[in-house]
Amino acid sequence: MSAADRIVAAEVLLTSPGRNYVTLKVTTADGLTGWGDATLNGRELAVAAYLREHLCPQLVGRDPARIEDTWQYLYRGAYWRRGPVTMTAVGAVDLALWDIKGKTAGLPVYQLLGGAVRDRVRAYTHATGWETAQLCDAVDAVRERGFTAVRVQSGVPGLDSVYGVGRGPGYEPAGRGTVPAEEVWDTAAYLRHVPGVLAEVRAHAGPELALLHDAHHRLTPIEAARLGKAVEPADLYWLEDVTPAENPDVLRRVRAHATVPLAIGEVFSTLWEFQQLITEQLIDHARAAVTHSGGISALRRLAALADVWQVKVSPHGPSDVSPIAMAASLHLALATPNHGIQEYMGYPEQAHEVFRHAWTCTGGHLHPGDAPGLGVDVDEALAARHDYEPALLPVARRRDGSMTDW
């Protein structure tokens, strides 16, 4: 390695153009810049500190071309490893190095991953409505934008707040402040109401539109099985996060009672958390986010394992992973045979201005573009005008006051 090839600086940027993002900037001696996303919604400062205090000093002087070696160094070199904070930080470094690799080669990252196996990446977005009629109108609006797949979430009678849907236009769960909002949850009310809503939406939308629904980790195994069986007539593309996935064995109960495809894994941070779910075919879609699960290098390994067992990789894509992470996810999707579908929640306009990107969303499909590297540039001056503000996701309690999963 010549002196011109080494990393000379690694910096962390915090910005809040509509929401909070943590960005890693890696600079080489020959002036190339690589960008990585290190956003972990509600725990942004923990990842920023992990990078600044631990990883950034270790990057200076390293060869940016040795992407896999650096990943192994950061992962295996930390005795206390895994977990979302560590893996988000490692993922940010990985994305930045792939960005540099592409810029060095003058090629988009997907070309370095073996080239495109598809022309475009199918996406789904969100439709919400507190009442079923509002939800159907939202589904129509999404379809008019060209999307062929949509996640649908509705209100529940008797509850004032429900994951995935707001009473007004739009939905943003993270609330500004240092103490999270507390929501009241009633599983029985949800199970009574949601199957009927999904049946009505299916009747309204017809058979062609792919419908998805997220239970958001809140059900016990038998409740998840009941829901899976009840929604079969709605012919869902998938039912997401039906139960907390820390105990994969429980999904066997859901499989025994329902044939609805299952999607799980957005809260996972390593391949090993997916291993049993994939090898026993307990899920149909692995939902890992490219930034939270260790970057492109790690997600490639996950996709390779999943491909053997005919499981698709369908990455998490909310607005709380930055346009840098979206770019990385799209490069990987374009080059991955068993990619399923990409979530695309969209971004505040200010985020598009700060993170100028080559990727596009047209007619319900995404493409990473053909700019060298990841194809995202950060306007640092504009980013500096958007100060970080604490924001936290809600917590949830049952009607008796006990905590449950949000």
From TrEMBL:
- Judging by the UniProt lineage, the source's domain of life is Bacteria
**InterPro entries linked to this entry:** D-mannonate_dehydratase-like, DgoD-like, Enolase-like_C_sf, Enolase-like_N, Enolase_C-like, Mandel_Rmase/mucon_lact_enz_CS, Mandelate_racemase_C, Mandelate_racemase_N_dom
| Mandelate racemase/muconate lactonizing enzyme C-terminal domain: residues covered | 132-261
Enumerate the SMART domains for this protein. MR_MLE
Record Pfam families: MR_MLE_C, MR_MLE_N
What the entry lists under Gene3D superfamilies is as follows: Enolase-like C-terminal domain (3.20.20.120), Enolase-like, N-terminal domain (3.30.390.10)
Protein name (database record): D-galactonate dehydratase family protein
